[in-house]
Specification:
The chain is flat and about 45 Å long. Helix content is 74%, strand content 0%. With 82 residues, it is mostly helical. The chain has 3 helices and no strands.
């Protein structure tokens, strides 16, 4: 890859999606309809709500495990220093 643009990122995503689908087929699972996918959607909504609440009201990060909470705090504090 010579440059990072929308086309190159699309190619990378397509490769990983193909790899995931083939690997799931070989293992006999549906890679795109699993509990982990649904849980990821739930967590992503919670993270998005937390980021919005912190940016709008200055709410502290709550309700996440220590690792996720630390990463969210680091992300949010990075945005404030700019």
């Amino acid at each position: 890859m010579t440059k990072l643009d929308a086309f190159a990122v699309g190619q990378l995503l397509a490769i990983y999606e193909h790899r995931t689908a083939v690997q799931g087929f070989i293992w006999g699972i549906n890679s795109f309809d699993s509990f982990g996918t649904d849980q990821g959607r739930v967590n992503a909504k919670r993270v998005r709500a937390q980021i919005g609440a912190t940016r709008r009201r200055g709410a502290s990060v709550q309700g996440f495990n220590s690792s996720s909470g630390f990463l969210l705090e680091a992300y949010l504090s990075h945005g404030r220093t700019r």
